[in-house]
């Protein structure tokens, strides 16, 4: 298995809490699991460390704990970049992307009363990534995606069920504003979506 696949596998496990915050990573066990030597595992762990997914303690690596300080910093960046990104997405979105967005709106509206938190978060990620792609700015989309996936661990760690109607209220407003080319409404809904997300996290942890 090549290093990219190992990296993607480990990052997905960290993001979706298959590897819990503050759990230790054993190089030998990982090498055996992926069928490679310790060298590519070290290279992947070094990259994950640079991106803030893991920490190094001497010769050991540990999945980073959930840090409210970091999520506050991420929120400040999102507030500046994501609102403008959504406006660019509205201006640059293609007919095909608009159709996909409409289909996603239908999926959100059809979410049952008792979905699990992961199902809700997966829908939210799909929504954001669609708008990130619609900006037609690859670097911006990659940066915003990196900020977004750091939020995932918090949402998935919430010790109660996420209420979909409340969770997706601003999401639906954002979609409506994009479809209507409502710039002011889009900015307001985007700002409220980010604020509400942060308030929810702060009120839980």
Protein architecture, described:
By secondary structure, this protein is mainly alpha-helical. The protein folds into two domains: 3-63, Winged helix-like DNA-binding domain superfamily/Winged helix DNA-binding domain (Arc Repressor Mutant, subunit A), CATH 1.10.10; 68-202, Four Helix Bundle (Hemerythrin (Met), subunit A), CATH 1.20.120.530. Helices cover 72% and strands 5% of the residues. The chain is globular. It starts with a helix and ends with a helix. The mean pLDDT is 92.
Question: Which superfamily, in CATH terms, is the homologous superfamily of the largest domain?
Answer: GntR ligand-binding domain-like
Low-confidence stretches: none
CATH domain topology of the largest domain: Four Helix Bundle (Hemerythrin (Met), subunit A)
CATH architecture of the largest domain: Up-down Bundle
Distance linking N and C termini: 38 Å
Largest sheet: 3 strands, antiparallel
Mean pLDDT: 92
Q: CATH first level of the largest domain: which class?
A: Mainly Alpha
| Strand line-up in the sheet with most strands | 1-3-2
Number of extended strands: 3
Q: What kind of assembly state do the chains in view correspond to?
A: single chain
Q: Given the C-alpha coordinates, what overall shape results?
A: globular
Helix coverage percent: over 70%
Q: How many distinct domains? A: 2
Number of alpha- plus pi-helical segments: 10
Structural class call reads: mainly alpha
């Amino acid at each position: 298995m090549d290093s990219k696949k190992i990296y993607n596998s480990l990052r997905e496990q960290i993001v979706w809490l298959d590897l819990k915050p503050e759990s230790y990573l054993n190089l030998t066990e990982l090498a055996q699991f992926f069928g490679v030597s310790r060298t590519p595992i070290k290279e992947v762990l070094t990259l994950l460390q640079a991106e803030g997914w893991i920490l190094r303690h001497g010769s050991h690596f540990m999945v980073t704990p959930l840090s409210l300080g970091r999520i506050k910093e991420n929120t400040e960046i999102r507030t500046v970049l994501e609102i403008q990104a959504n406006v660019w997405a509205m201006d640059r979105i293609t007919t095909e992307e608009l159709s996909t967005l409409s289909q996603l709106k239908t999926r959100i509206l059809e979410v049952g009363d008792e979905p699990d938190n992961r199902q809700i978060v997966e829908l939210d990620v799909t929504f954001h990534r669609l708008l990130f792609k619609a900006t037609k700015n690859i670097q911006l989309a990659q940066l915003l995606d990196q900020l977004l996936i750091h939020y995932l661990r918090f949402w998935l760690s919430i010790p109660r069920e996420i209420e979909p109607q409340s969770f997706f209220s601003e999401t639906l407003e954002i979609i409506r504003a994009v479809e209507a080319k409502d710039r002011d409404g889009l900015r307001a809904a985007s700002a409220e979506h980010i604020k509400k997300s942060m308030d929810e996290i702060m009120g839980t942890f």
